[in-house]
What we know:
With 275 residues, the chain is of the alpha/beta class. The chain is built from eleven helices and ten strands. The strands form two sheets. An eight-stranded parallel beta barrel has the order 1-2-3-4-5-6-7-10. Strands 8-9 form a two-stranded antiparallel sheet. This is Sugar phosphate isomerase/epimerase.
Amino acid sequence: MLGLGAALFPYELAARSLDRAKLSKFGLQLYSVKEEMAKDAAGTMRKLAGFGYKQFEGFDGGKGILWGMQPAECKSLLSEIGVDFISSHANVFKDLDAQAEQAAAVGMKYLICPYIGAQKSVDEWKKVADKFNAAGETLKSHGVKFAYHNHDYTFKMLDGQLPQDILMENTDADLVDFELDMYWAFVAGYDPLEYIARFPGRFKLCHVKDAEAAGSNAHDRGVLLGSGEMAYADIIKKSKKYGMKYFVVEQERFVGTNPMEAAEKNAAYLAKLKV
């Protein structure tokens, strides 16, 4: 029996390695279904919860970060459907205190700057970093944290420096976190995992979106999760070691599907993924 056990041991180890844990929680950036949110925010959120999303990341669709709902109403809906509103993209340079109060009231952890635009010089990027620190200071007083979501322009060299590096190195880690859009880093030619590893603890959120084989336009490579080049089982597992906490699906390009179908298929992919 001992001999048999010893002989089977390597196979047991192999079986255990194949039985990797599933991702217990993942989110959706509601911009992915912006038309549906504009028509019926509460109804759309209920449907998305039914797909398996346990976290939402919002955006200001013209009705504020709570889509016209009062904090108590929004919090009640979230409790009913079993979803945490972890963050929202927002205009962090206008009415930030008021937005922070709403965010805190429904339990959001982050307000996120979704876009700043390419700057013309290194000095201008350093000024942006100063603005991020100031916004982070304001949010800190409300118990909410600031984060910045990148596009590909922060991964394009400028005067011998990478703008994303400038932001990382000139922001206060106690005030500013980052949401890595893995797609935009990837199509700009950077390995998302390698970049996260350079700045452990700074990336707490990420956008999970897949990219098909290189094309002429980086903006037109988005595909459903699992049908592109990005090995998300490995990316998600290893990024956790460097402090990544929130994995947020975002879909902006729809080929042969529609936004709600894409949201459902992406949720099914992540629910089965072994990480």
